[in-house]
């Protein structure tokens, strides 16, 4: 796409942000891309996805799937036929998509301002509104308590129904506004303001995106979680508007279903879940204890052969969950080497004889039996493709090293 010698596109999405239809003239084409003299279609930028919709002329309608700004020219990517330069066309936005994007962008401004008012060092480093889960990357490492304070402040301000005010000003005039962050552009700058009903500026930022005429139209704004990311930043993940309402409704339904499965109420669900976790923890501890006891019984009940420097024990298991407890039990036995193999193929060796390192033995036996594994001199684990050959290899080794 080229914008050489082309006039800048008139941005109707700034001057008529609530319009859904417009008429324009084609000024240039480049393959599937069309430049118009004026457009309602917002080009991708500032963390906000582009608008989509249709372009119609002479009774034909084609889809606009992408919109990009190059210099001052806005290019529209079409899926079908391309109108020639000079052709009069009509455009129609996918309004549901635009409205979602405007809700996200409005919420981003307001939530960023709320964090800034909680603590000024929570400065925005980057934003993304490309999906229903939007993000603010903040400096200053805000905590969960800070996020809760910011959300409560924002909820309070949404009840005041802040009003959108946009102005295009010169760089010299920017000092007249309490901008939250320095602008990233030069020359004339579009300033987006949200004012209280009495005219006080609550939020001010240089921005070229689309927003809602009243802040309350972005409600609810819900912080979903905080994530620590590289660079010492904190990512605030949030949702806004209908998308947030849908998510909250979904979560409510899931919570209600879970409460019913526990035969309790939503209010008591956290306590019921915690009780269940405590019960599970206790049962897991008891099960682990019983497995350790059973492992000790299995080891002491197995046949022990005399080898050079100590004893050799080989144990076969059907339950692979006993493998590690039995190896741990065996590793505590003095002057011994123990081999354990499960019917599933999991296997291991424990050795307290320095002359027979477990890791070395396991690798050698698995080379013969097939499989992979390794470990430390005192304990090694692996997986064999042939438990029977592993047992034969262990038995042959015991004979070779018999005392």
Automatic annotation (TrEMBL):
<dbReference type="InterPro" id="IPR018165">
    <property type="entry name" value="Ala-tRNA-synth_IIc_core"/>
</dbReference>
<protein>
    <submittedName>
        <fullName>Serine-tRNA(Ala) deacylase</fullName>
    </submittedName>
</protein>
<dbReference type="InterPro" id="IPR018164">
    <property type="entry name" value="Ala-tRNA-synth_IIc_N"/>
</dbReference>
<dbReference type="InterPro" id="IPR009000">
    <property type="entry name" value="Transl_B-barrel_sf"/>
</dbReference>
<dbReference type="GO" id="GO:0000049">
    <property type="term" value="F:tRNA binding"/>
</dbReference>
<keyword id="KW-0648">Protein biosynthesis</keyword>
<keyword id="KW-0547">Nucleotide-binding</keyword>
<dbReference type="GO" id="GO:0005829">
    <property type="term" value="C:cytosol"/>
</dbReference>
<dbReference type="GO" id="GO:0006419">
    <property type="term" value="P:alanyl-tRNA aminoacylation"/>
</dbReference>
<keyword id="KW-0694">RNA-binding</keyword>
<keyword id="KW-0030">Aminoacyl-tRNA synthetase</keyword>
<dbReference type="Pfam" id="PF01411">
    <property type="entry name" value="tRNA-synt_2c"/>
</dbReference>
<dbReference type="Pfam" id="PF07973">
    <property type="entry name" value="tRNA_SAD"/>
</dbReference>
<dbReference type="GO" id="GO:0002161">
    <property type="term" value="F:aminoacyl-tRNA deacylase activity"/>
</dbReference>
<dbReference type="InterPro" id="IPR050058">
    <property type="entry name" value="Ala-tRNA_ligase"/>
</dbReference>
<keyword id="KW-0436">Ligase</keyword>
<dbReference type="GO" id="GO:0004813">
    <property type="term" value="F:alanine-tRNA ligase activity"/>
</dbReference>
<feature type="domain" description="Alanyl-transfer RNA synthetases family profile">
    <location>
        <begin position="1"/>
        <end position="250"/>
    </location>
</feature>
<dbReference type="InterPro" id="IPR012947">
    <property type="entry name" value="tRNA_SAD"/>
</dbReference>
<keyword id="KW-0820">tRNA-binding</keyword>
<dbReference type="InterPro" id="IPR018163">
    <property type="entry name" value="Thr/Ala-tRNA-synth_IIc_edit"/>
</dbReference>
<keyword id="KW-0067">ATP-binding</keyword>
<comment type="similarity">
    <text>Belongs to the class-II aminoacyl-tRNA synthetase family.</text>
</comment>
<dbReference type="GO" id="GO:0005524">
    <property type="term" value="F:ATP binding"/>
</dbReference>
